[in-house]
Amino acid sequence: MKTLKDFNFKNKKALIRVDFNVPLNDNLEVTDATRIQAAKSTIIDILEQNGSCVLMSHLGRPKGFQNEFSLRNIVKKATEILGVQVKFVADCIGHKVDEAIANLEAGEILLLENLRFYDEEKNGDVAFAEKLSKFGDIYVNDAFGTAHRAHASTTIVAQFFKENKCFGNLLAREIESIDKVLNNSEKPVLAILGGAKVSSKITVIENILDKVDHLIIGGGMSFTFIKAQGGKIGNSICEDDKMELALDILNKAATKGVQVHIPVDVIAADDFSNDANTQICNINEIPEGWEGVDAGPKSRENFDTIVNQCKTILWNGPLGVFEMESFAGGTIALGNAIDKATQNGTFSLVGGGDSVAAVKQFGFADKVSYVSTGGGAMLEMLEGKSLPGITAILK
Fold it and tell me: What is the pLDDT of residues 331-347, one digit of tens each?
């Protein structure tokens, strides 16, 4: 696996695919700069070798050139975070870019305009990728969030660099962290899968059953398993068409010696609202008109015990409707348990949009071993799929 350490960037232009697809408010100001911060290490490493950086990214889902999706809007924040003035060119191919590249000096950063202003980017157009390839001596992919897409800048462009391509620091860490969980883990290994739907996690569960010792199934998806076993779940979310699959998963887990843990009690609410009336119920005895919205106190204790027995933990999905303060307790308790385990030497990896949002919201981001930056990409790796953006560098 080639990384920055395999190259000398002195007087070289690094063409870097970053993921600067960051949220903007109505004033077109960056509201969460995590992804820019995540790319800093790679960019600074290259600049310190007296190289220059040409940054490519997409932003949102524009239809042609649209100002609200222009990467011009993130230049100020990127400059602030990187501590180096970020130059900007209002296109990503063409004469303007050629001129800006020609004038780029060692130690400088140039940000190209939104790649998705051109349909050729998403279509993986070879001619478009070849034009991009002219802007650098070495291609660096540091965009894990788009590594599962065979787009021009994430995958196709790599073929024009032969040996001169590598992973940036962020993408290398992502690959190493997921590989550590799936293939080089210290046992016992625990996977925690939460969220609303079994259907979105089926292939993940099937792929990791051979690699884990414990599996916690929480959040909305737990009710499909409970109902499949004959429990009463009231008005709780449930995928009735996936109940047979849930039983099949439990049988497969038992065959492989994997211990599956499902909440035993829940906080139930009479309305999907922060101000709803609540009660604690056994998870298989939720009254009609009530729905499970968070893990209950006994479940939290059980999960704390399991978490602190394990040496490798993967957390993907919250245990309740954490966006509502009244129903965040289970997810916070789980975060505290993982924090404690991590302090005692456990490797903990958190990934997936809702999980990442939760660890940030409740202050756990610095208390786990690694927080993944790519939701869809991470899920596909956990499913055992090869990601085109990663394969393109390894070829």
Answer: 999 999 999 999 999 99
> pTM (2 decimals)?
0.90
* Structure-derived torsion over alpha carbons of residues 4, 385, 357, 3, reported in degrees to the nearest 10: 0
Report pLDDT digits (tens) over 339-372. Answer: 999 999 999 999 876 888 899 999 999 999 999 9
Looking at the annotation, which residues are catalytic? 35, 197, 353, 376
Helices (DSSP H) in the chain: which residue ranges? 34-48, 75-82, 95-102, 119-122, 126-133, 169-182, 202-208, 222-228, 243-256, 297-307, 329-343, 353-361, 375-382, 388-394
| pLDDT surpassing 80 at residue 286 | yes
Q: Which residues, 6+ apart, have CB-to-CB distance to 39 below 8 Å?
A: 16, 18, 19, 20, 55, 142, 168, 170
Residue 161 identity (one-letter amino acid):
F
CA–CA distances in Å: residue 253 to residues 183, 283, 383:
18, 21, 16
